[in-house]
Amino acid sequence: MRRRDVLIGAGAGALALAGGAATYVSTATPDYARAVAPLRRPRAARGPRDLEYLVQYARLAANGHNTQPWTFAETPGGVAIRPDLSRATPVVDPDDHHLYVSLGCAAENLLLAASAAGAAGALSFEAEGEGRLLVDVAEADPVRSDLFDAILLRQSTRSDYAGGAVPAATLAALENASAMGGCDIALLTAKPELTQLEELIVAANDRQVANPAFVKELAQWMRFNPRSAIASGDGLYTGSTGNPRLPSWLGRALFPHVFTPDAEREKIIGQVRSTSGFAIFFADRSDPAHWVQVGRSFERFALKATALGLRLALLNQPVEEPAFRADLAALAGATGKRPDLVVRFGHAAPLPMSFRRPIADVVLPA
Ligand SMILES: Cc1cc2nc3c(=O)[nH]c(=O)nc-3n(C[C@H](O)[C@H](O)[C@H](O)COP(=O)(O)O)c2cc1C
User: Fold this and answer.
1) How many domains does the chain have?
2) Is the pTM of this model over 0.90?
3) What is the structure's pLDDT at 47?
């Protein structure tokens, strides 16, 4: 087993156990690659308001802990996207910030899919109650963009990257693609900035890993083997993060022992030092409507990066731990603002794709 393959780092005893168990399970597990592939097959629209087609693309969006905290329903004008608060993660995300960002990611995919099918979509946010996103759909000429084509290929790639600088023209293309009303990004690529950022991520991560409630919540969303990832259709499959497969009972038992500050620190340092650059996202205001805009902007950034052959992932620890937000904002030249996302990008090989729940599970009656 390679060093990086350890379940987020582990002591020798746990490692030996994990290695043995990984071998044991691999003889009896379903073929993950075969099961996950249909999720990313292109689907043709039966018309500009084909809800199944739209949701097929929307559900592939980035979302915190892969909880997929959304439902979709047909409306007289188009589609409503609602939060599914039963899928909130109150420890890491007490004000549902990530949840609304995730809804924005899904909405952006849906809008791109609508455009490709010959429908111009307009998004509005209704703040009442839990809030909902309304996408009005009107027939238009189809627009098939490189961002739409990248939806099936985008993933969070949490491995070490290959290092090296990203050309200025590529950075400009990422900035242009992610331009969105109500939010902004700051790109960090200079070594001294990245060193300071690494310190912030590590310090915030130390705090998270020392919080038993955080570890417990994260463990609930871990899927330690293909069978559990496929059965639930959600969560963080260890194979998608380059970690070994374990029986669920063993993974859950080992997780608090292998998810340690030392192991995580080492992993983060490897990731940051091999990363070409970071994008920090900032909303103009801290409310769900603006967090949705951040999600749309981030999804477009991620799709453009994918279209340009880059990989990306999030290291959101200094956003999630409030004590580190002010330093992060200052580092990114946005003193006084609340940072929303910390995204790293660079070159790397793909990892297995994450799973999604069936379309029927997330589509509600109109
Ligand atoms: C608001 C938000 C916060 C996230 N935070 C993190 C994070 O801190 N660390 C991480 O590895 N991934 C993070 N992710 C990525 C999700 O875990 C990922 O999108 C999800 O597991 C689905 O996988 P995919 O992006 O490969 O489709 C975040 C995504 C969103 C939208």
Assistant:
1) 1
2) yes
3) 85
